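[Protein data]
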Amino acid sequence: MRTGIYPGTFDPITFGHMDIIRRALNVVDKLVIGVALDSAKQPLFDVKTRAAMVEKDISNALGVDETRIKVKPFSGLLVNFAREEGATLLIRGLRAVSDFEYEFQMASVNNKIAAEIETVFLTASDATHFISSRFVKQIGRLGGDVSKFVSPDVAEMISQEYLLPRG
């Protein structure tokens, strides 16, 4: 059984992420979606909320395939998390050339640390290549409609988050 890890902050999960998840299921038997507790970024949602959003979107959108998916928060080195989960593949999505440079360097570093774990790049589809969580949050913060980029549940959570007083 081939297990893969699709890591990310998923702050929030978008249609682009869901596209990569669906397509990753063609490459692996089991997919662990690693929701990163990334201290370098300042996420809008805490890791528990982000993991719950991912689980809900998968449940609503994937049906039968959700039995092949596990959502799990993690911190620390990705390759250590992959080893803990028995994964041999890291799944990474690429939207643009700028993504490739960073991801290529990361794959090289991960290979030096854990040569037994391969990185597989899936390019974003034509329908989703322009979607990023950063843009979704910016649109939501400015009062725009994010429903073309995220599920109705996530759109509602973004709306609620930006209606709350910030302090």
